[in-house]
Amino acid sequence: MAVQISPSILSADFSRLAEEAKAVQGADWLHVDVMDNHFVPNLTLGVPVVESLSRATDTPLDCHLMIEQPDRWAPAYVEAGAGSVTFHAEAAAAPVRLAREIRAKGARASMALKPATPIEPYEDLLPELDMLLVMTVEPGFGGQAFLDIMLPKIRRTRELISRHGLEMWLQVDGGVSADTIERCAEAGADVFVAGSAVYGADDPAAAVRALRRQAEETTAKAGWARGH
Ligand SMILES: O=C(CO)[C@@H](O)[C@H](O)COP(=O)(O)O
Hints:
228 residues, alpha/beta, eight-stranded parallel sheet, 8 helices, 8 strands, globular, binds 5-O-phosphono-D-xylulose, D-ribulose-phosphate 3-epimerase activity, carbohydrate metabolism
């Protein structure tokens, strides 16, 4: 299991998005939060901005759709250049069909769970997904405090992934920082979204390297490391 860091541009300066995307050189992904002011009480960006970003950076885009009707919109984000598209379990009308469509179009398919949504009802869907995202804040805003009470859900999700012998990734998003990343890694997460901890730092690329080091050390100690 390889540690991956995905800085969230929600905490970047939106007037300089191309520059900000390049400022996290060395990151595995660039996390792009798409919000529609319906599924979450905030509004960010859409397909045209994702298209421009995919031309502006070589870092693959990890698009997190916090929107209603992801079944209708997700394919457009793959066409816009996203390498991974995450839809919310709470919003998708037909998650299996949607995951298959995202994969068929050539991107990684991922499903997110809000803090109050349990993983267990979705156990049978896991083989259809490349990544599961456990939200560690209520979606909608950057800079919120990490919800410690999500750690058991991260642990249970990792156990389910292992039990089914799957290679899928387990992402955490919300309040991930130098203070919390080790707890997430110890619980079994391997893809870490960090907004304010990266873009709030004087040197975002150095912050990515430091977070990666912390997560890798914890992962190695916890014995999750098995390569994928
Ligand atoms: O999806 C979201 C918020 O809904 C996140 O991606 C945030 O952008 C993460 O920001 P920090 O909590 O790391 O500041």
